[in-house]
Amino acid sequence: MSAVNITNVAVLDNPASFLKPFQFEITYECLAPLTDDLEWKLIYVGSAEDETYDQLLESVMVGPVNVGNYRFVLQADPPDPSKIREEDIMGVTVLLLTCSYVGQEFIRVGYYVNNEYDDEQLREEPPQKVLIDRVQRNILSDKPRVTKFPINFHPENKDPEDQTPPPDHPAETDGNREEPPASTQLPSDPRLP
User: Fold this and answer.
1) Is the Cβ–Cβ distance between 78 and 22 less than 8 Å?
2) What pLDDT is attached to residue 166?
């Protein structure tokens, strides 16, 4: 059983310009006091084929964490378009929100993000070079993919009965498996739950 459960993630300011910061209001509950901080990360997947294009947009430590309910807004700068291949800027990609405790990731929330021009004419006749200031991102916030990984929240307790098995088989918790709109081509990305 997890000591921390995410109860809600609200994507703020969506859709938005590609160049605007991301904002997520995260609500979670802690069921047991934790001695270390939680690490929250936001990762932009720059290419489904090559992890080297991934960009860590933000990493924050949150704590101390006692029993109770918590809420905060995670704000992150947008990805640096110069670190994304031109052909991967437009279309669908993935945004990953993760949380770890003592270096162990225990939850991953994946969102599809659709990047397209904010103008119908530009969508129908895209220019040779991407006009980044005209690109709008839309996070498909109603279709997150949530994966939980079992971890040991109390590593100081060496009792084998309290040890959680390694995350060989993550548990997918989102039953909403609707397909995105037919007009979007989804990347095949193993990092998305």
Assistant:
1) yes
2) 45
Span of 66-70, 71-75, 146-150, 165-169 with lowest mean pLDDT: 165-169
Q: Which residues contact 129 (CB under 8 A, 6 or more apart)?
A: 86
Q: Tell me if 151 sits within 8 A of 101, measured CB to CB.
A: yes
Q: DSSP assignment, residue 83?
A: G
pLDDT of residue 162: 44
For 68, other C-beta atoms within 10 Å of its C-beta total 10
**Predicted structure pTM score:** 0.82
For residue 48, what are its two tokens?
Answer: 């489904």
Contact of 99 with 60, CB cutoff 8 Å:
no
Residue 145 makes CB contacts below 8 A (sequence gap 6+) with 109, 110, 111, 172, 174, 192, 193
Widest CA span of the chain, in angstroms?
64
